[in-house]
Amino acid sequence: MLKITDKAQGKVKEILDSQQEPYAGLRVQIVGGGCSGFQYQMGFEKQANGGDEILELQGFKVFVDKGSMIYLDGTEIDYIESLTGAGFKFHNPNVKSTCGCGESFHV
Predict the structure, then answer these.
(1) How far apart are CA 31 and CA 36, in angstroms?
(2) What pLDDT, on a 0 to 100 scale, did the predictor assign at position 84?
(3) CA-to-CA distance for 52 and 33, rounded, in angstroms?
(4) Which CATH number is 3-95's, of 2.60.300.12, 1.10.10.10, 3.20.20.150, 1.20.120.430?
(5) What is the DSSP letter of 26?
(6) Taking 80 as the threshold, does the pLDDT of residue 40 lie above it?
(7) What's residue 101's pLDDT?
(8) In what order do the strands lie in the sheet with 61-64?
(9) Measured between alpha carbons, how far is 79 from 58 in angstroms, rounded to an integer?
(10) Per-residue model confidence (pLDDT) at position 32
(11) How far apart are CA 93 and CA 74, in angstroms?
């Protein structure tokens, strides 16, 4: 199961509400690429794709394809604000190693 902290949910909702077009929710997926083989990708979707796992959260949905859910099982997504920047942070127990910049990973 994928978990999204209250802070991250609030930030997603804030961004969704500021969009000019209506979106049904957020897509979270794993894509090939980066130094270590895989990387996270997030974007807004107007509807689910066939076979998606759908999570209902604070006024929006999260869509995850079955292939990505295998790698995201047990993952927590948080929103971090610090002196060096702000952004979504993935805490994934399935990751075996990451690249130097932390943007990609290997399972």
Answers:
(1) 11
(2) 86
(3) 22
(4) 2.60.300.12
(5) E
(6) yes
(7) 55
(8) 53-56, 61-64, 25-32, 38-45, 104-106, 97-98
(9) 15
(10) 84
(11) 6
